[in-house]
Amino acid sequence: MGFDDDYKREVLEPARAAGDQPPEDLRVRYRLGDPLVPGQVAEQVRQVRQCWRRSRGQLKYRKLIDRLEAEHRELAPLFAAAERGDLRPLTERLRGGRERTERRLADARARLADAAGGLRMVTPAEVEELARAAGTGRAELAAAAAADRIEIREPDRLPLSPPYAGYRKVRESLDVLGHRHLAEFLFGDAAGPIQVLGGFAAPGAPAGPAALPEAVREAAEQWARRTRDSSSTHAGTVLVALRAVPPDDLVLYDVVARLRERRRQRASEGALLRHAVEDLGIEPGDARRLVFAVLRESGPGGGPADRLRALLDAGEVYAAALLGESLDEEDGPDVPPEAELLAEEARQRVAAAVRLRDAAGAERDPDRAWRMLADALALVRDLPGAEEHQRRLPPRPVPRVEAVAEGTGVRLDWAPSPSTVGEITYEVVRRRGRSPGGDGDGDPVASGATGAFDVRPPVNVPLYYGVLARRGEAVAPIACTGPVVVRPEPQSVELVAGDGAVTGRWTAPPGAARILVTRDGRPVPAERDGFREPVPNGITHHYRICAVYADGEGREVVTPGVVASATPNAPPEPVRELTVESDPADPARALARFAQPAGGTVEIVMLDAPPPWRPGTLLPVAEVRHAARRVPATPTSRGLALRPGGGGWLLAVTVAGDTAAIGACHRHVNLPPLPALVAERRGEAVHVGFDWPDDIAEVEVAYRAGTGSPADGRLVVTRAAYEARGGIHLPVPPDLPVTVTVAPAGMRQGSRVVGPAVEATVPARLQVRYDLERSGPPWKRSLTIRLLAPRPLRLARLTLVHRPGQVAPQRPEDGRALGSWDEVPVPGELSVSAPRDRGPYWLRCFADDDSIELVDPPVRRLEHNR
């Protein structure tokens, strides 16, 4: 059992962990070797399927094995072809396995991103469910979550009920006093973002576990010093609650209650997060955790009504009915009314389902009984005995079966079973000499819904086929057809026309007594695997190749035969000399000149590498066309006009019938347009870059400043100079638009040629400098922005951005806009109130105008370190 143990460990266990998803890679599923060998493939598939049958006895593998067997029915033709020696279908299927696995993982990652939402957080149970639904591993999906910066965590446990009985009065008093929550009542709105998970913390509040009790004491002293009024009464209500229970618990519940309230108002995930951060002033990290926990709350439970409702929602109605009976026995009249109603509902559904199950047991029509049991299971999914009885109800038998010999196999078609309920599958068996008696009486044949193809039946013997309809564990009576006798035609028939002769080759089918060949109705002497016959050139000759079999009584039976034609011709003459040059009238076209040979038609083909054949070589036309691409050609007075469409080796081939003569060749180098041309300003110059093609040695560059002006410069740049300088740098005025034209160039046939040019335009940019100056007393500081430029102009839009911390803003989105102005005149001044941040911060201006380059002042004018 070493093979079974290895296969379970390496294939079945990973597939079961991925939600009973069979491996997409057939090399893994069937443990196929590399390279594929036809005989080894068939033996490996046989061993793997035997392991499936042995492992199906274990309950944990049963669902997975059923899926593997179901998919194997679709894959059976691939392995049958491989067993015959044709590995191409199996190789193509193997090539697509990895792509399907990648698509499945990409789909799982997309579902994970949807589940994470804007919070970028999911629970371990959600990851487990997504992995099972997408058919991938949990570890693989967890790694994808880490790569996508999605946090996997359990939701924080939030208080379900208020720790203080009079919390409603506290909430009303807070609303009257105009405070967002208890933390603001204690510290005001200057404390900064607060943290409530794992203990209270705020930037402006004292640190440590005694922070809130100390704040409560200070708040009580402040309100005691005030004149007594209605506000003092409400403040006293709040302070009494904060002294009665741990203030950390009450502050946390107050925040959570406000989030739950917004959740009940159908607020979205993003709206909840904004409410927590902006309205309640919660630190963003704590806000994400709070919103995540609120969105995934299931609420309290565990009582009789909750337990009964959970069973009913899960479809376990029979278990709910049993639980209701036990409640009646244990609690009697103390059962809550809601639980009693739920238990009564379960009892009524079970009673109706039992009546249906009993009626199905007395019903003679299996389809009608199956429907009754389906209705019973719809009412009570866990009704005892119903599902087992349903699996034992057979469908009606197949009414009609037809079998026809087709090539080397037999094609079967049948009418589906008249039964229309349940999942009905079909099985096909084959037997020699007589009809099969039932399931297992004969050789199994892979089948589909209403048809099958027996790829390797016995030859020249009577065959009988039977089709069985299966539903669940029950099988209908077998429907048979036959006899069918398979007498294949000769395979791989090939006629080769030569000079005054035709040669035929084929593969004789097994079981054939001999091969009969006729030409135009007259017999042709032939061996078992071929013939050669002298015939006149230039005439098409028609042949029929038939297989001859001996029947059971010794009489010869001739098959209809395979028809093929051949036209012998004299061998073609090769082209000795070939000249190819560019067409001056059309740079994308080339002209080919050569002496027309006496026999055959000349074709020009293109190869990516030098021709593997010597000039004068004769070979089949199909071999040339498989290795080369035919070039479109048009005869002209100056030669054969070609459109190569790229570089390579142009080869002249003379074709006569199915034979080609290899002639002279010419290397063609194409001058394509330069791809991905980019021109941009860098300081006082324009930088030009592009993807340099492999076949181009140099380029010609022309540029002009302004519109309508002649070219200001022209230069030739080699590839070495381009790579050494990292591109092309052109000195141009900064206040004028610049047009740059670049074209490939080189030597072809002793003359210099220039390819098609590409053009790019760089708009003019003006530099505007600005400075920031702070002024005014500390309690009312202002900022003044001074703008300077070489000439008067207007900025389309100017924005002053403020960013706290040690990092300067790089984009307008990196901070908060202190001011924004449209159509700003330059030179000029602008004023705005300075921020009151206590910590370090940065200020920086941004211009929303493509024609302007905004120059920053020194760093000391932008950075504020106080």
Automatic annotation (TrEMBL):
Superkingdom of origin organism: Bacteria
Annotated Pfam families: Fn3_SaeA_5th (PF25835)
Domain SaeA fourth Fn3-like: start-end pairs: 680-758
Biased composition, class Basic and acidic residues, residue ranges: 1-13
InterPro entries for the chain: Fn3_SaeA_4th (IPR058694)
Region (Disordered): 1-25, 432-451
Name by which UniProt lists this protein: SaeA fourth Fn3-like domain-containing protein
